[in-house]
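protien #1 (seq + structre)
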Amino acid sequence: MTFTFTALLCLGEMYSLHANGKHTQLLLSYFLAGTLHKPIIKAETGSVVTSGSPMTICCEGSLDAEIYVLHKEGSQKPWGTQTPEKPENKAKFSIPSVTKQHGGQYRCYCYSSAGWSERSDTLELVVTGIYHKKPRLTALPSPVVTLGENMTLQCVSQEGYDELVLTKEDQKFLSSLNSQFIYSIIQYQALFSIDHVTSDHGGTFRCYGYYNQTPHMWSVPSEPLEIHITVLSKKPSLLTHQGQILDPGKSLTLQCCSDINYDRFALYKLGGADFTQNGGQWTQSGLSLANFTLGPVSSSTGGQYRCYGAHNLSSEWSASSDPLDILITGQRPFSPSLSVKPNSTVHSGDNVTLLCQSPYKVDTFILSKEGAAQQPQQLKSKSEAWDFQAEFSMSAVTSALSGTYRCYGSQDSSPYLLSYGSDPVELMVSGEVTLNSQRSIRASSPPPSRPMPTAGEYQAPQCREYAPSPGCLTALNPEKSSCLCHFSL
C-alpha cells in the first residue's frame, strides 16, 4: 500500500505542475509507460451526443485495477478518478447533462499493484446542437438505390460551416468533407460518394456542420434521410383506378401488386423523403398487393411514383415498379385549345393529327384520352408565331382510338402541375379493321376504368396472353374485351 500512496501523491503533484513543463512530461512518461495492458475506452451511447443529453464514458481495464483515471486533452487535472469498491474490470464516468465544454479528446488508464497501465486509445467526443442553422441532406438521384450501384449524398447549408459531416444512425459510417460554396444555389455543400452500395448502407443518415476552430462542437442535425437498398428481383406493378390526371380534391388510391408473395410494399415519390410502407394482402388467384390512399389530392400530390416489394425476413427491397406519373389539373391559370385535322370523323386506316395550342407559355403539352388505360402522351411545345403548340399524329387509326380527348399544358419548373383542360374533342373512327397474319389487335376499346383487385377475390383469365405481362393485370381486367389477344390466322 506504500507504493499506492506514493503513486497517488506523485499523480497529484504531476497535475499541479505547469501543463507544458518538462517535469510534467517526464512524470507522464514515467507513469504511463505502464506494465499493464492498455484499457479500452468508449461512450456507451455513442461518441456523438446531443447537447443537454446524459452520457456515460466507460473505461474497461483489468480485474485487479485499484484506480481508474479519465483524462481530457488540454486539462491540467484528471477529468475524473474512480476507486472500485470491489474487484471490477471497468469504471463508468457519468455526465448528467452534456455541454459544449465536454467536447474533446479523452483517454483513460488504470493502476494496480503491478503498476500503471498504458493510456487507452483516444475517444473523440462530439457535442451536437451547438449551432442552430440546420443543414439539409438529400440523396442523388434517389434514396432508393440498387445493391452494387453508386450513391451520392448531398449535404447543403446556408451557414458557412468549414466542414460538413455525414453520419449513420449506427455510427458505422462517418465522413467529413470541406464545404464548398456553390454560386448557382448560393449555399455551401459537400457531396459524399458511396461506391458499390451494400446492404450495410441501408438505414438513417444525417449531416452536420462545424467550424475548424471548434471541431468537437457541431450544429443541429439535418432531418433524417432513410436509404433503402433494392435488389434485382422481380418488380411489382403500380396501378391507379382513378387515372393519372386528376382535379384537386379528387380521391386517389395507388395499388402496388405482384404475383410474387411479398409480405410488405412501399411507395416512394420521386424527390421526397418519405418511404411509405403497407403490409401485403393476398388474393385467391395468388397475387399480393397493398393499397396506398393519397386523396383528396392537391398540388403536393403531383409527382412520379414507384413501388417496391419485400419479404419480412429481408431488409432489402425488390426492383422498382415502372414509374407512374400523377398529374394535377388547374394549377396554371389558362386552358389550351384542341382541334383535329383533317376533321373529327375519319375512316379506319386514315391519318389524324390532334393540335394542341396556347397563347400562354407552355413547355410540354399532354394529350389524354378519357378512360384510356395507357399513360397520357406528352410532347414538347414549339413556338409558332404568337402561339405555343404541339401536334399529336396518329397514323392508320383504328376504331380503338375513338373517344374523347383533352389536352393540358405544363411548365418545366413543375412538370406534374397542369393547366386547366381544353374543351373536349370527340374523335370518331368508322370502318372495319382488317386482320393480317400474326397481327395483334384489341377486340374493343379499353373499358372506362381499371378496377383493382381486392384480397380474397378470384379472377379467371380469359385470354391466352396479356400485355403488359404482370399477373396482377389479369385480375384487373378479367373481361376478354379488355385483354390484348394474339391471333394466328
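ok now protien #2
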Amino acid sequence: MPEAEAAAVVTGGGSRAAGPADYERFITLFSPEGRLCQLDYAFNAVKLAGITSVGVRGDDSVYVLTHRKEDKLHDPTTITNLFAITDRIGLLATGMPGDGRAIAQEARNAAAEFRFKWGYKMSPCMLAQWIADRAQIRTQHAQIRPYGVVSMIFGIDEEKGTPELFTCDPAGQFFAHKAASAGPKEKEVMNFLEERMKSKPSLSSGTTKGVCVTILSKP
C-alpha cells in the first residue's frame, strides 16, 4: 500500500508530522491559542485559488477587477467569479469557485425575497450584512464548514444615490471600503491602495477604473 502523504501542522504544543487522520474536523473547537482552526483553513483556501481581486469606490462609480485563470481547453464564457445579484448590485467572489457560485445564488434568493416582502430593493449594505450573518452561522455548527471565499459586494444605494463597496470574509466580518483587495497578493495591493487613497482623492469613473487596472497589471 502506498504511504499516506504527511504534512507539517502546528498545534499548541508545536509542530509535528501528521497524516490525513489528524486534520481538524470540528468547526466549533478552539485551538490553545483561541483560534478556530477551520477558519484558518478557509482563509488559506481563499489564497490557494491563486486569484487576486481589487475593488475601488469612486465618487460616482465602483470598479472591481480580478484575474482569470486561462486554460486553452476551457470555454472562457463559462468561467467567472463575477455575479449579478440585482440590476444594481454585483458580487465578486475570490476563493473557491464552487463556494462563490453558492453564495451568489443564495444572495439572489435573499434579494428577491426581500423585495417581495418589503416592496423595495435590497441595498448593498443590507446584502453584505446578510451574507456576513450567514457566514458567521457556518462557524457555529460542526456539520457545515465555512465558505472558502471573500465576497466583494458593490453597487449603488437607491436611497443615497451613492456607490458602495463591502467585503465579507469566512469569519462573518463585513466592512465598507473606499478600496479593498483579496487573494494571495492582498497585502501588496492594500499597501499600494493606502498610499493612493491617503490624500482622499476625488475619483471620477475613468480614474477609478485606471487605479484598478494599474494595480492588477503589475507583476
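Strands lie at 7-11, 14-18, 53-57, 62-66, 82-84, 89-95, 149-156, 163-168, 174-176, 179-182.
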